Amino acid sequence: MAYDPNNIFAKILRGEIPCNKVYEDEHALAFHDINPQAPVHVLVIPKGDYVSMADFTAHAPDALITGFMRAVGKVADQLDLVEPGYRTLANAGVNAHQEVPHLHIHIFGGKPLGPMLNPNFSG
User: Which residues are known catalytic residues?
Assistant: First the structure.
């Protein structure tokens, strides 16, 4: 999947579309999801043109990778999710149902989340 500079997250980073910001530094921007799937549902996006985690880890500078991952941890802490627990998720590609071609990590929390995948899956 090629990076689309007109995707919604690129527009949010450029300030063309507003967001409900939770956190921002030189590496990342975090904001509330417009269609929350849990009481707390925040997206953390890197400041750069990266489609997926594979693209990001292969091409981003080390300082950006480190700063982005630290931002995910800072956001979880800022939202008081560390002690009760939370889930992170990054979809990549069609099979994972990635909707926006810009790397983003979902942070879910605020309630017991249950199993992530179908426990009855038999393969």
Answer: 104
